[in-house]
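Posting here for the record, re: adenosine-5'-triphosphate.
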Amino acid sequence: MIKDITLGQYFPGNSLLHRLDPRCKLILVVLYMVFLFVTKNPWVYLGLGVLLTLFVLVSKIPVGFFLKGLKPVAFLIAFTAVFNLFFGSANAAHVYFSWGIIRITDAGIRQALLMAVRILLLVSATSLLTFTTTPILLTDALERLLSPLKKLGVPVYEFAMMMTIALRFIPTLIEEVDKIIKAQAARGADFDSGSLLQRAKSFVPVLVPLFISAFRRADDLATAMESRCYHGGEGRTRLRELRYAKRDIFAFLLFALIGIGLILLLV
Amino acid sequence: MIETQNLTHIYMQGGPFEQVALRQINVKIPENKMVGIIGHTGSGKSTFIQHLNGLLKPHHGRILLDGEEIPKSGAGLKALRFSVGLVFQYPEHQLFEETVYRDIAFGPSNMKLSREEVDERVRRAAKLTGIGEELFDRSPFELSGGQKRRVAIAGILAMEPQVLILDEPTAGLDPIGRDEILNNIVAIQKERKNTVLLVSHSMEDVARTCDEVLVFNHGTLFASGTVDEVFARSEELNEIGLSVPQAAKIADGLRKAGIALPQNLYTVDALCDALLPLLSQGGVCHD
Ligand SMILES: Nc1ncnc2c1ncn2[C@@H]1O[C@H](COP(=O)(O)OP(=O)(O)OP(=O)(O)O)[C@@H](O)[C@H]1O
Ligand SMILES: [Mg+2]
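Prediction output follows.
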């Protein structure tokens, strides 16, 4: 159940997508998000959807596994869609149904679909990034890309380190939750029956020990880092330096072309 | 009686780290027995026992308790958890309440017993596991590893389950504490006539306390039978990374040296009983 969450997980592999430079992937995902939000043209969304599907196929991640990873956000997508559907935009040509403040209109339907597709593609693109990039590489890339900000006094290295730790501990915390739930269930706590509210309530006693153990873990980690003489980014070298390769340049070119196409379409 | 039919469990099915932890386990566990479960690290022992109270669901196969398939949800599942008590391998994960007392009381409170009954059970369980009442108001997170383990065991004992499952209950305890807890468990088993499953890496403990043994190897059931039957296969056990109790090794060595000893010597006591008469005969050495 809870262990099925694959958010932020890495899926080991050696596909073209896995081997792309992480900086390149990060930039492409940001570009992809920009593409997603600059237009409302349904054809563009179809194109972006096809592009993403191609990338998923190239990554060699089993489609079923990929789709399963989207399940946790299905609720969010459904919620946004329904919200937009009922309380959709005011300037509608047709009103199909209206009751109190609830109005279903043609514009509302369009808006609902648009938001659903946007969120779906957004989440898919980012999870494709984390599926094909190890957390270490991801934060390396982030640090390198943000390093100009160091001149402005932004603690980029520390941010990157925090992100590494956060990503590293997502699976650990999920495991922890699983263990606490099991320990309580083994002594008769009820997690899977009752109304939604009751079920939500039964998770409160899970949170307290979770926080306690998270703090203890943080403490242990700090001690471990301290005792290995950890200190910030100054003067630290890397085992693996990031280097752009030809495939990265091709990827950039591909996205540049798509960008130019979009701009032509918009003007 | 607990019975499993073709029990198979796969962790992270369909994912990149898919792992078949149990493969077609068919086993019958008789009532009113101490049953030891041994097997190398990662052989599937913990996975197996978590199926018996419905914490893990099998991917194939079924689990029968007294001839009926165990419930998968609802009130039946809750009742199952009270009749099959499970002490986890790592006790610190099992404790979550604010005080030791409330932690031990968590199970019985969920059973809708009267307050007095809960209180009585908590005190009885604490006594059996050697937890002094002065610890009742402490946070379970401030205890030592061994104390945590005792509290975890007490929390399950307080439910007075018909089937008691203990996953390495004595790991990390000092020798006296270990014997004390094991002896108490044996005593409880005799008194309440329940079934006890004991997962252990200590062949001595298994030989000393158990009637039957299940041997797991890479997610399959390698052997099962009485203690005598299983430990008689010492060579096979060695091959899968296990061993026989020290006393059995000594007996084996003495037999090879030409001393006539009976079979079935697996505990220190049994070995002593066999050797002492020989000694009083004035020695049996050949040269
Ligand atoms: N929560 C989990 N997620 C994924 N794989 C797991 C999980 N728990 C166990 N496994 C895997 O399943 C296999 C069996 O594990 P299990 O914990 O049942 O072994 P065990 O016999 O109890 O070992 P030990 O003697 O070390 O306690 C191992 O290969 C382990 O890596
Ligand atoms: Mg185990």
